[in-house]
Amino acid sequence: MTVNKQLSYDVRDSHGTTDLNKSMLISFRVSDSAPKYLIHKSIVIQDRNRRQGTASCKTRSEVRGGGRKPWKQKGTGQARSGSSNSPLWNGGGVTFGPKPRLYTKKINIRERQLALSTAFYHSMHKVVVVENSFNSISTPKTKNFISILEKIIPRESNAKSLVIVHENNNNLSLSIRNIPNVQLLYANTVNLRDLLVAKHILITEKALTHISQFNE
């Protein structure tokens, strides 16, 4: 079961000050019956789909050599052995080792979007909305961006911050990529894990509107 819930966000400028005359009222379609189950399911499928599944070990039949019996069956005092490819031997085959396989699993688009919308609604306490002009950085300068960022959200050593913008800006991307624990995402590439792990979420007005339109 889904319900529509509304949230009001104050909009800040690049100096971190709140415009008293400007706010956003956003409506989210949220899972009301089992939000934890839906979010957990989406996270598990996202992690499964990221796996390469290329790990591979050789069985005793695939290991090179081992055709000769190492020693005779009786009379040596040793335990009997038929091949050096045995899993008991160093350099032998692996028993029940991994083989290349597909871990991918399908999830319905509407279900994935509902999980993302639900998670974003429940992350409202860590969301800061900024003006669209925030995405219009003219020069790629990391030092300048850090000073802007510190005015808007508190900088913590191990806290991950997520910056979500509505469109690609190469200058903004170059300014952010060397800052530890700060990640840049676009509104159409937001994923559930980054959303939940982040302690602070900085998002532009247009990006917030785009995310709120999921499941409409």
UniProtKB/TrEMBL annotation:
Keyword vocabulary terms for this entry: Plastid, Ribonucleoprotein, Ribosomal protein, RNA-binding, rRNA-binding
Keyword match rRNA-binding: yes
Region called Disordered, residue ranges: 49-92
GO biological process: translation
InterPro entries on file: Ribosomal_uL4, Ribosomal_uL4-like, Ribosomal_uL4_dom_sf
Record's compositionally biased regions (Polar residues): 75-88
UniProt GO MF annotations: rRNA binding; structural constituent of ribosome
A Gene Ontology cellular-component term: ribonucleoprotein complex
Keyword Ribosomal protein belongs to the record: yes
Superkingdom of origin organism: Eukaryota
Xref: NCBIfam families: rplD_bact
Family recorded in the similarity comment: Belongs to the universal ribosomal protein uL4 family.
HAMAP family found in the cross-reference section: Ribosomal_uL4_B
Protein name: Large ribosomal subunit protein uL4c
